[in-house]
Design goal:
Arc Repressor Mutant, subunit A, 2 domains, eight-stranded mixed β-sheet, three-stranded antiparallel β-sheet
Length: 309
């Protein structure tokens, strides 16, 4: 029998003064109560209770055992209470992992989260490659592309698209592309973790799938360097919408070939466990979902200015 349950039953028998009263308090049969007491005594090799037809009383050993076991049960109840309180209020260290291109968007969300939950601290690590969340002790990863690890729990936050763009200064030195095929003749700024490599994929005016193979002088996994280069007029960039939205709105960059939409991807929250998800993780995911929903048009490469976070 379960030892903890047997301890609880033993305590109720002592406090109630009998098996029948304890059975009523525990919503258990008298036979089951007796079985738990017998299991305890057999395990210990001692008699804990003196039984008569009229009453049940503690033996000397039973009295010492009751005093100690009741302390243990009280401490367990306190531990349960503390665990419940910790789960109810976000606290502790939230360990996050995300792609560097999302840091600009996540920064104000993190500020808001820390203001809402002052008992939480944050450790944020960035990288382009997916890591083992369990091995690295990461609570939550925010990724712009679908994960390859099927064991992870995935919560889709928002769809998003790239934006094909360049600086006005680039167009002063090069003819503006009139068709997708023209991109092959331009200096394109390339990102090594784009899922299709140097084959940039789009949806045409009739939603037909289209693609063009590009080349260029720069290949880098630094989103900030690519943003710097496109703003400096050094090439055409298939840019994440959330990286250059402010630059588009300010007129520092112009959209190219608007009739052709880059293919859609999804920003997702990834975590290892579905059950007993801590409050600090759940509350951050919920806040992210709210903020991404508010910026849905912006994330999808829409021309409007993103609303304030």
């Amino acid at each position: 029998m379960d030892r903890l349950t047997s301890l609880t039953v033993f305590g109720r028998v002592v406090e109630s003064g009998g098996f029948s009263a304890a059975a009523r308090r525990l919503n258990m049969s008298v036979t089951m109560v007796s079985n738990h007491i017998q299991s305890l005594e057999e395990r210990l090799g001692v008699r804990l209770l003196n039984r008569t037809t009229r009453k049940v009383s503690l033996t000397d050993i039973g009295r010492a055992y009751y005093e100690r076991s009741s302390q243990i049960l009280a401490e367990l109840e306190e531990a349960d209470r503390i665990a419940g309180a910790l789960q109810a209020t976000p606290r502790g260290t939230l360990k996050l992992y995300t792609t560097p291109t999302l840091v600009r968007f996540l920064s104000p969300v993190l500020v808001e989260y820390l203001e809402l939950h002052p008992a939480v601290s944050v450790e944020l690590t960035t990288g382009d490659r997916m890591i083992d969340l369990v091995e690295e002790g990461i609570d939550l990863a925010i990724r712009t592309l679908a994960p390859t690890d099927s064991s992870l729990v995935v919560r889709r936050l928002t769809p998003w698209r790239h934006v094909l763009c360049c600086a006005p200064s680039y167009l002063k030195r090069h003819p503006e592309p009139a068709a997708l095929s023209d991109l092959a003749q331009h200096d394109c700024l390339r990102y090594p973790f784009y899922p299709y490599g140097d084959e940039w994929r789009f949806e045409g005016p009739a939603n037909e799938p289209l693609s063009v193979r590009v080349n260029g002088k720069v290949l880098t996994n630094s989103g900030e360097l690519l943003r710097f280069l496109v703003l400096a007029g050094r090439g055409i960039f298939l840019a994440p919408s959330f990286l250059i939205a402010d630059d588009l709105e300010a007129g520092k960059l112009v959209r190219l070939l608007p009739a052709y939409r880059p293919v859609e991807f999804t920003i997702s929250a990834l975590y290892p466990h579905r059950h007993y998800l801590s409050t600090k993780v759940r509350s951050f995911i919920d806040l992210l979902a709210e903020r991404f929903a508010a910026h849905r048009h912006w994330m999808s490469g829409g021309p409007d200015e993103p609303p304030a976070a």
